[in-house]
Specification:
This protein has 376 residues and is of the alpha+beta class. 36% of the residues lie in helices and 32% in strands. It has 3 domains: 117 residues, Beta-Lactamase, CATH 3.30.450.20; 106 residues, 2-Layer Sandwich (Beta-Lactamase); 101 residues, Beta-Lactamase. It has a 5-stranded antiparallel beta sheet with strand order 2-1-5-4-3, with helices on both faces. It has a 5-stranded antiparallel beta sheet with strand order 7-6-10-9-8, sandwiched between helices. Strands 12-11-15-14-13 form a 5-stranded antiparallel beta sheet. Strand 6 and strand 7 form a beta hairpin.
Length: 376
């Protein structure tokens, strides 16, 4: 009886093709009506993938060589294909056999001789790469969610991605931002154009830039923003920009309030009728009023960085330093001594002194009165 040309014996006619393809190919003969299968052939790629030798496994029962094939689920596929004649693809799955661990994708079909052919590929490296990429993406997503600042990406000034913190900052939902121009974030065309002209030019030149601007929230509130951006190097041209946005509104308001407070304090000090000096913790003058300059004969430039001992005769230095060191918190002390002007002239003076904290640093405040004139 003549054998069918599609039998495993005739696969040998195409030996070069059979052994040169990168996919593994194994041929099985069904016995006992598909309750078992005998290995009849395997190509070189199959030997490499399964880490077996052809002359050691051909003729053996499938479970003698691949003991985990039933648990893997492929044995049932063999039986279905044998019965129906319909090819099946078994999706990418993990196969373990002893020390062999790999991800494989199988395609199973039946020959007219009723032999079963399995074509399979080892996709372990692909799966490792996919899993590593997934892990990196999950890590990045965690960072973006946990970050206390707004993060996003724009391409040609169109918003492609923003994290939840950015949405909360500007009051828009993510779907209201994605795909829109960044113009939605600016109060005026002038500010939008200014950022585009200067900020993007610096990014093009040096690859990154940080600057302050203002955004208009969805509810109309204007907030101060510190915007830091960098170009995405993987893009072919300068169009992709990754940015971080920090709401510095409260900080700016604090700076403004501090400047106003400093201005009020300067005006108040200047309005006082007696000399006022403020010394840092290291003993240098950090502020004074005009009366001080006129009383002691120094210009503002000259008086800066001078020490308390420069304004008293040398024989009074020890007495006044001892008094200063003895000042208790919230205590004001009064000391009668002599002061000395720039020209060396001395005069009786009354020193009122107390310590205070400015910007978390200890300072000494002295009100100096010329005792040769009656106190006001």
């Amino acid at each position: 009886m003549q054998k069918n040309d599609s039998s495993s014996e005739n696969i040998g006619r195409y030996g070069d093709l059979f052994n040169c393809i990168t996919s593994g190919v194994t041929v099985y003969e069904a016995i006992d009506d598909g309750n078992d299968f005998i290995i009849r052939d395997i190509n070189r790629s199959g030997e490499k993938i399964d880490q077996v030798k052809k002359d050691e496994i051909v003729g053996k029962h499938v479970e003698e060589v691949f003991s985990g094939i039933r648990n893997f689920g492929l044995f049932d596929v063999f039986r279905r294909v044998l019965k129906t004649g319909k090819p099946e693809t078994y999706p990418i799955s993990v196969y373990m056999e002893g020390h062999v661990f790999h991800w494989v994708e199988n395609y199973v079909y039946r020959l007219p001789s009723r032999e079963i052919v399995v074509v399979y590929d080892d996709v372990t490296e692909q799966k490792k790469s996919e899993e590593a990429l997934k892990e990196r993406e999950e890590l990045l997503e965690s960072v973006l969610v946990a970050a206390p600042i707004g993060i996003g990406m724009v391409v040609n000034r169109n918003i492609k991605f923003v994290n939840q913190k950015f949405c909360e900052m500007v009051g828009y939902r993510r779907e209201e931002l994605i795909g829109n121009s960044t113009r939605i974030l600016y109060e005026t065309n002038e500010e939008f154009n200014r950022v585009g002209k200067h900020h993007y030019k610096r990014i093009e030149t040096i690859g990154a830039d940080s600057f302050e601007t203002q955004f208009r929230r969805k509810d109309g509130e204007i907030i101060d923003i510190l915007l830091s951006s960098a170009s995405v190097k993987s893009l072919k041209s300068l169009s992709g920009i990754i940015f971080t946005a920090t709401d510095i509104t409260q900080h700016k308001r604090g700076e403004h309030a501090l400047r106003q407070s400093e201005q009020r304090n300067r005006k108040l000090i200047e309005a006082l009728p007696e000399a006022v000096l403020l010394f840092s913790d290291d003993g240098k003058v950090v502020n004074c009023n005009g009366v001080t300059c006129r009383l002691l004969g120094y210009s503002r430039e000259e008086i800066g960085d001078r020490r308390l001992t420069d304004f008293v005769p040398s024989d009074f230095s020890g007495k006044i330093l001892t008094a200063v060191n003895g000042i208790k918190p919230k205590q004001t002390i009064k000391l009668e001594a002599f002061a000395v002007r720039k020209n060396g002239e001395t005069f009786p003076a009354i020193f009122r002194m107390k310590t205070l904290t400015v910007d978390r640093e200890k300072h000494l405040l002295i009100c100096l009165h010329d005792a040769s004139h009656p106190e006001m």
